[in-house]
Design brief:
With 730 residues, the chain is an alpha/beta fold. Helix content is 38%, strand content 14%. The chain has 29 helices and 20 strands. The strands form three sheets. It has a seven-stranded mixed beta sheet with strand order 2-1-3-6-5-7-4. The protein has a seven-stranded parallel beta sheet with strand order 10-9-8-11-12-13-14, sandwiched between helices. The longest helix has 19 residues.
């Protein structure tokens, strides 16, 4: 029997779950079992937990459906636990180093107790000083183990479930489980306090609670707010037999929570008066004999609640909304007249059948937005679509696609009126997120390099990123965020913290890799000028933040000569360096200016890249990939990466031009080891790309269809990528 069972509910925190699990397994005290509780075996957190279970026998995941909520996940963990003491840890929190050793030492001093309360640290998600709210509550407690009536002010309702250790047999004997409620900690804390006969405290921090950028879900407006009163009633009914000296602090603390909610009517779009009436009944029914009204404003609130004086209560504690200045609230088109017109357009009703698309800050009709647009025209023809392009890029838009030039009067008008806004980057700073509008962030690659707020510790890239506060303001406009694999889902959660819904649908731009025919492959090669019978190698290096311009660092003509007489190179620089057509020389064809990266990939027989995200897309074609990593250490230190590409590459790795040429000359680039590496890479990073991504997006976002109407992801083994040129010839 382990000393401690640590139960970790893991809904919606896959991106940070590994840090929580690492903090437990790294403890110096190792007599433990770790029980992650993901939603289901195929949930994002489940794959993280399964990986830990394979590496450490102390990890035993169990599953609880999302419909069971936090309480159901914790109860599932309790039923699976075997430890003497149970600890609860949120999936994005951590145990501080030495925490379990400190708990074990304290329990050795106190002997068996029902509940051992301890301190926790609340850490701001971004910057600021951490706080220790439990310290004051525990400061006056007796030194050893004690009965609850010796510290009546120490009630569990003022502490979260992860700020205590609970004796498992105590919970089983009293049949204590977490109540089914958003406010389950209130009920749990009150019930365990009422039932406990012997408790103790540890005056040191055990858990580091990392605040979410979105804030506590309990503070969000919604129909769940009245559930607080259910938990208050449950606790007070269970406490009915307690002596007055214990009942009074408990009553005052639970109604402290009630008053905070009653004073914030914005948390309840409807039913606020009914909440107040029910709170009054509970106050009058359960108020202990001899209850002394608190002093000051809190005491006045108690009296007004007990009297049912709703209007007076609202007048006393009404919320004064702090209005932003007009300059902050208004969008920032450059010209005063345009700014005024945009402000007026924002007062007009949303057009429920208007969608606005943009890709790469207006570079043209490309990438995920273009693929979604094309499918929406088929599945949702009632939606009128407008594509946004920079001035001078109008020619990139197909003739039958409506467009608006960025910065024009029409640009601001459609942005003000559209219900649907789709982008693979971000809309301009001044765009207002209107109630009822739907913003879809499609992203434009799978992240190897650090993104979003994760860039903050890398000075070179952070300096170019600009204000992270403004970045997060743009993230707050997202309703949906698209993902091609679980790695991306977890990375976006950490790099772009927000309240959006993750859509694990695949990237629509990659659909063509499964729908293209042999004719499409031939046409793409001819359009790019690839000679018949040649092996076309796509060379696509990424941008270097520490360099001022494009320097691919590889003599491509020399590579062609050394790799074999049949090889030609398609050079595609990062889109930052697209300066228009640049003709090729000899066996090197510059395709940087070609609008469709998908066409270029279809035309290529193999890919050479360094750290570009194109490798994740190209892997869908199941064609050879070679990594040319001549500056990996520099890139990793200056930009930062999410995983070690050298340890998990999609194919052979070359560090020098000579190695690269040899890999092609002797055929290793398409040999058995290359195939093995590519298969592992595809299994991890091509999870949801199957040719149906755009359809999933349109059905979910534009048509709002139920989950059963969304096409399921086709298993990787059953997908048939577009044929290579050699297959076309044969």
């Amino acid at each position: 029997m382990p000393r401690f069972s640590i139960i970790v509910p893991s809904h919606g925190v896959a991106g940070r779950l590994s840090q929580a699990l690492d903090s437990v397994l790294a403890q110096s005290f190792g007599d433990l079992e770790l029980i992650p509780v993901p939603d289901a075996p195929d949930a994002p957190a489940a794959s993280v937990a399964a990986g830990y279970a394979e590496r450490d026998s102390r990890v035993t995941p169990v599953h609880s459906p999302p419909s069971a909520g936090l309480s159901g996940a914790r109860n599932t963990g309790v039923r699976a636990a075997n430890g003497t003491y149970l600890l609860f840890l949120d999936g994005d929190d951590v145990l501080v180093p030495g925490a379990l050793a400190a708990l074990d030492a304290r329990l050795a001093e106190t002997g068996d107790v029902d509940v051992l309360y301890f301190e926790h640290e609340r850490t701001p998600w971004w910057e600021g000083e951490p706080s220790n709210p439990a310290a004051a509550l525990l400061a006056g407690a007796p030194q050893g183990a004690f009965a609850p009536d010796r510290a009546p002010g120490l009630t569990g309702v003022a502490l979260p479930a992860w700020s205590a250790a609970y004796r498992r047999t105590f919970l089983a004997d009293r049949r204590l489980l977490f109540p089914d409620s958003h406010f389950t900690d209130v009920g749990w804390g009150g019930l365990t306090t009422v039932a406990a006969e012997r408790i103790a405290v540890l005056r040191s921090v055990v858990v580091r609670h990392r605040l979410r950028r979105q804030g506590s879900r309990l503070n969000l407006p919604g129909p769940h707010q009245p559930e607080l009163l259910d938990q208050v009633e449950l606790v007070l009914e269970r406490a009915a037999g307690l002596p007055g000296e214990r009942a009074r602090p408990l009553f005052e603390q639970v109604f402290g929570l009630v008053l905070k909610t009653a004073a914030r009517p914005e948390r309840m779009p409807s039913g606020h008066r009914a909440f107040f009436r029910r709170a009054r009944r509970l106050h009058r029914t359960h108020r202990p004999a001899g209850f002394q009204w608190p002093g000051g404003s809190v005491g006045v609130q108690h009296r007004l609640l007990a009297a049912g004086a709703y209007t007076a209560f609202r007048a006393l504690r009404g919320i004064n909304q702090v209005a932003a200045t007009a300059a902050e609230r208004l969008p920032r088109p450059q010209m005063p007249l345009t700014r005024l017109r945009y402000a007026l357009d924002l007062r007009r009703p949303l057009d429920p059948n208007l969608a606005v698309y943009c890709a790469y800050w207006g570079r043209g009709y490309v990438c995920n937005p273009a693929a979604i647009h094309a499918t929406a025209r088929e599945l949702a023809p009632h939606i009128r679509s407008v594509f946004l392009v920079e001035a001078g890029q109008e020619h990139t838009v197909p003739g039958d696609v409506e467009y608006a030039v960025i910065g024009s009067r029409r640009y601001w008008e459609v942005l003000a009126l559209a219900k649907y806004l789709v982008n693979n980057a971000n809309f301009a700073e001044g765009i207002v997120k209107r109630p009822g509008s739907v913003h879809l962030q499609t992203q434009h690659g799978t992240p190897l390099k650090k993104m979003g707020v994760d860039q903050s510790t890398y000075p070179v890239v952070a300096a170019r990123t600009g204000s992270f506060t403004r970045l997060l303001g743009r993230v707050d406009r997202w309703d949906f965020n698209l993902s091609a694999n679980r790695h991306s889902t977890q990375t976006w959660e950490r790099a772009f913290p927000g309240s959006y819904e993750a859509l694990e649908y695949g990237y629509p731009r990659n659909d063509v890799y499964y729908t293209a025919s042999a004719h499409d492959v031939v046409r793409a090669r001819r359009r790019l000028g690839v000679p018949d019978g040649r092996t076309a190698v796509l060379y696509a290096p990424t941008h270097r933040d520490h360099q001022s311009g494009f320097e691919h660092g590889l003599d491509l003509e020399a590579f062609c000569e050394a790799a074999g007489e049949n090889v030609v190179v398609l050079l595609r620089a990062h889109y930052f360096y697209d300066r228009g057509p640049a003709g090729g020389t000899g066996r090197v064809i510059d395709v940087t200016a070609h609008r469709s990266a998908e066409d270029v990939c279809l035309a290529a027989d193999a890919l050479i890249t360094d750290y570009s995200s194109i490798m994740f897309d190209y892997a869908n074609l199941d064609r050879p990939i070679v990594v040319y990593a001549d500056d990996w250490e520099v890139y990793r230190q200056t930009r930062g990466v999410y995983f070690d590409l050298m340890a998990e590459p999609p194919g052979p790795v070359a560090r020098t031009p000579e190695e690269l040429a040899r890999i092609f000359r002797d055929g290793a680039y398409r040999g058995p080891e290359s195939k093995r590496l590519r298969a592992e890479f595809r299994a991890r990073f091509c999870q949801f790309d199957d040719g149906l991504a755009a359809e999933r997006v349109v059905r979910r976002v534009f048509l709002n269809q139920p989950p059963e109407a969304i096409p399921a992801v086709i298993p990787l083994a059953e997908r048939l990528p577009a044929p290579t040129a050699s297959l076309v010839r044969s």
